Amino acid sequence: MAEHRNGNVKNATAKASGATNPYAINLENFTKRLKMLYSHWNEYNGDLWGASDALAIATPPTSEDLRYLKSSALNIWLLGYEFPETIMVFMKKQIHFLCSQKKASLLEVVKNSAKDALGVEVIMHVKPKNDDGAGLMDSIIHAVNAQSNSSSHDAPIVGHIAREAPEGKLLETWAEKLKNANFELSDVTNGFSNLFAVKDNIELTNVKKAAFLTSSVMRSFVVPKLEKIIDEEKKVSHSSLMDDTEKAILEPARIKVKLKAENVDICYPPIFQSGGDFDLKPSASSNEENLYYDSTSVILCAIGSRYNSYCSNVARTFLIDASATQSKAYEVLLKAHEAAISTLKSGNKVSAPYQAALLVVEKDAPELAANLTKTAGTGIGLEFRESGLSLNAKNDRVLRPGMVFNVSLGFHNLQAETKNPKTQKFSVLLADTVIVGEEAPEVVTVSSSKAVKDVAYSFNEDDEEDDEKPKIKSEAKGGGTALSKATLRSDNQEMSKEELRRQHQAELARQKNEETARRLAGGGSGATDNRGAGKTVGDLIAYKNVNDLPPPRDLMIQIDQKNEAILLPIYGTMVPFHVATVKNVSSQQDSNRNCYIRIIFNVPGTAFSPHDASSLKFQGSIYLKEVSFRSKDVRHISEAVQLIKTLRRQVASRESERAERATLVTQEKLQLAGAKFKPIRLSDLWIRPAFGGRGRKLPGSLEAHTNGFRYSTSRPDERVDVMYRNIKHAFFQPAEKEMITVLHFHLHNHIMVGNKKTKDVQFYIEVMDVVQTLGGGKRSAYDPDEIEEEHRERDRKNKINMDFQNFVNRVHDLWGQPQFKVLDLEFDQPLRELGFHGVPHKASAFIVPTSSCLVELVETPFVVITLNEIEIVNLERVGLGQKNFDMTIVFKDFKKDVFRIDSIPSTSLDGIKEWLDTTDLKYYESRLNLNWRPILKTITDDPEKFIEDGGWEFLNMEVSDSDSENSESDQGYEPSDVQSDTGSDEEDDVSASLVESEDDEEEDSEEDSEEDKGKTWEELEREASNADREKGDDSDSEEERSRRKMKAFGKARAPPPTKRTSGGSLPKRAKLR
After folding, report:
1. In angstroms, rounded to a whole number, what is the distance separating the alpha carbons of residues 465 and 1027?
2. Which of 417, 431, 402, 404 lies closest to 336, judged by CA?
3. Is the pTM of this model over 0.85?
4. Across residues 836-863, what is the average pLDDT?
5. Which of 105, 222, 435, 711 could disulfide-link 17, Cβ–Cβ 3.0 to 4.6 Å?
6. CB neighbour list of residue 151: distance below 8 Å, 6 or more residues apart
7. DSSP per-residue codes, 833-857
8. Quick one: what percent of the chain has pLDDT higher than 70?
9. DSSP states of 546-602
10. What are the respective helix, strand and coil percentages of the chain, to the nearest 5?
11. Of 674, 771, 677, 664, nearest to 721 (Cα)?
């Protein structure tokens, strides 16, 4: 371990001097930083450098312990390497080095640079091997006194680093000499802290590389390892995790990070804590206790790595089946941490981050303020904790661009509402490495996610529900009053969850109405309406000159394919017409064997005719609308019609492609990977949309280059470039129940694939061949050939899924680099357990949510809906007895048509409502389909009235139901999905424009009710109970049962309620099992 650590802080004594020595001082760097040192010393000598005449810095011998010293930091900052057992004395006109022969030979090269840059003379004092160096020290002290005498000082002031105690015989002798000399000693620690605080570009690059390694280890090693341990219920100690993580840092190749191992080191042994014993100090250590991951447990992990001696740090908290208290504490900490980071801008005070974090805590959870850490972190660089740059409430220093901070914030020793002693006390901690910017801070460890969905895990929801259900039943049996069967079958817990969901939806409705009001007030309803915009074509010129016309063969119709023209004989002259002016052409044969050809042209004023430039330019001209010719040559007429149609189709296709390309946004040019960086490659892929052309389709390969993907086949013209900056969403969908494994990119701006303009590009492989048995006979399930074929297909599917997964992982690592962090790219994976069947276009498809979208990536046209762009969701045709319902998605851009998903099975209703609620999407329910175009037009025409009338609450079925019950309470019961006959004709006319017909569904409902007639209430109740018992579901609510009784739908039972985490908990990550 020590060898690794000392290898990073390169020791100048490691090799003998001479031509073979690998260590060479960067003279350009040395010159620049020596100037910075003397400039800073002269400018701030009175404030930070103690009015010193000389600076005496002594570096101690090497140590196997991890430690951070100002003297070592100065060595590395100025010379690039650590020089142990070396004394450096900086004076106004001289620099003295006292060291061994080997080090002196290395330092010899700086003499000329120091002389040229500042006129400073570098003097070497070479200490013999067995000498204590006392005589050489006397000569240095004499030189200091000589300088002081020339400056007429009484006693020279010598700056030193007071906190560093002398180590070794050489430094102890030097300390004694300084003490006995006629010097006034002054501590210059603050001077060096201020000097090192602002990093140059080389230093920032080192910090970013260290941060990339740190966040990669957290993301690609620590998180998967913790997940595996918890999922497999292994017993692993904190110290064992520490050792494994340290090895991952010291061997970057293990996690596919391309940094040289000799430049890498740890900042401190990785820290893992759980089981109620937490220490948030950087000096904390991992104990020998096993990792504790039972319900409501908290796991803290902190790791730091160095690159070329520059430090970085990241800390994360992982929640296992979090309680409401733990969830709230983490959410508040996350908000406070983000607030602290946001204040790290040039000009702010160093105290601003802690004050911003404290403000968030006092506002959102004042009871947690006492448990907040006393600082929000420290400066970080060559030292893990830079003195003088602590982010506390009293630090008045000013932030400058180039400063780097370890922003670390936590709550210590919070109390949880559990009886388990290992989870009663818990702490939460977050830390990131941040660079101060002019306008905004740069979080260089951002690739390690701290979002709630990525750190909150749920493992034993099933056990909890199983434990709670008997408890509910026993309470029901012990009640004082006699309960009916319906009451016993109802699930009180589910009712409470439904109530929580209703309350959350009410809060979302309020927020959504406020948001919509703000957006409409600012005129931000979306882009302009492009409906009905006609295509435009350029000037149609067949021949520029009369002389270009081909010589007439006969007075017959000719087709000039080269010039895209039709030449028609009119009054003995061949008159040319561009083929784009032709609207339609047809031929017809009469009984006398005469054949007629009829050509209809596009003219201004007719419907659906394109507005070309000529028609706008010559509006007063006379246009030819139609011509007919008769001929005895049937074959010639048929050939002419065929040629005109073919040529017209080709020209229309070309002009359409040209018009599409004209609207494309210009993309940056793809930068191909260089010789050193081999592009990440995935072979034998097919693309959708497919390339045009009549030739045989060919598979191609997808490569990840410096700034984008390139897909190409063996044909040179079949190539597609997808820039990383143009990717809005990336999806990876492995084949499970599908026949294909998919990589799908949804883009910001359209691109051309062949001659098709598209925003969705998909690359896929078919995992299974379509096989048809020719024999026609039934094969046995135990047929060895059949079993072998199934094994082969399964292995092929697994191999393809694994190849895609490896490609995705490597691209993720590429996207984790600092230059791509602003793009926020990652491959999203559909959550199949939340999926449902529906008809988004013309065919039924399986539609699946992801963390940020709602997608369907198998059938074309594809469906990719970004959740952030959704205003509200309206669930239509939701009513008793309906087998299906529809989902209408209304976008924030009201100029955009709503998106409908029809014929969703009613069994999916509860699951969809649960998903919408957990993703904070406001949904409404209605019993009929609405005609949304006039509704959206009404909203955009008069937004003030829309807001005054309650915003979206006109869709709230519960409100309208309660109103109707109050106004019509004396009319008796009426089924909710049957319209009343008492309404006026005027009301019917108004509703007709907003509601579409649902005759088919009503007929189905009537047929169902006919089937169920004749059964008594007891029979219906018995059937429902038996069906519940068979499915193991006795949690239908009393309200649902009473509705079934009223409608006499004994068979149409509601679907079982979907599982949901406890009311106060965070949205959970998907199960690992």
Report:
1. 21
2. 431
3. no
4. 92
5. 105
6. 53
7. GG-EEEBSSSS-EEEEE-SSEEEE-
8. 77
9. GGGSPPPSSSS-EEETTTTEEEEEETTEEEEEEGGGEEEEEEEE-TTS-EEEEEEE-
10. 40, 20, 40
11. 664
